[in-house]
Specification:
Blueprint (H helix, E strand, L loop, with lengths): L1 H18 L13 H12 L2 E2 L1 H8 L3 H13 L3 E4 L6 E4 L1
Antiparallel strand pairs: 1-3, 2-3
Helix pairs in contact: 3-4
Length: 91
């Protein structure tokens, strides 16, 4: 079961990389690379959770949290909710 879940996550990451292979990660030159990756996700999705962003970008959840906090502070994203069910949308 664990092996299957790992393969599913890897598949999602690879699909994301293939889908975004032709787009530049540094679309927002003033943002760190991971923040730029997060913003790219919002070009195709209206809303996303921390775990979705972690899977799509292949980045650790705690790292995603730090970058999301910064993006919310700088008004790139809006956080909806305060607990586990929180999600983010692009401003």
């Amino acid at each position: 079961m664990f092996f299957l879940k790992t393969l599913q996550k890897q598949k999602i990451r690879l699909e994301y990389k293939i889908e975004h292979a032709n787009t530049s990660v540094q679309t927002n030159l003033d943002l760190p690379e991971i923040s730029a990756k997060i913003m790219e996700v919002f070009e195709t999705k209206d809303r996303a959770t921390i775990s979705e962003l972690s899977e799509l970008t292949g980045t650790n959840i705690n790292t995603i949290k730090k970058h999301l906090s910064s993006l919310v502070e700088n008004n790139y994203l809006t956080k909806h909710g305060k607990t586990r069910g929180a999600w983010y949308t692009k401003n």
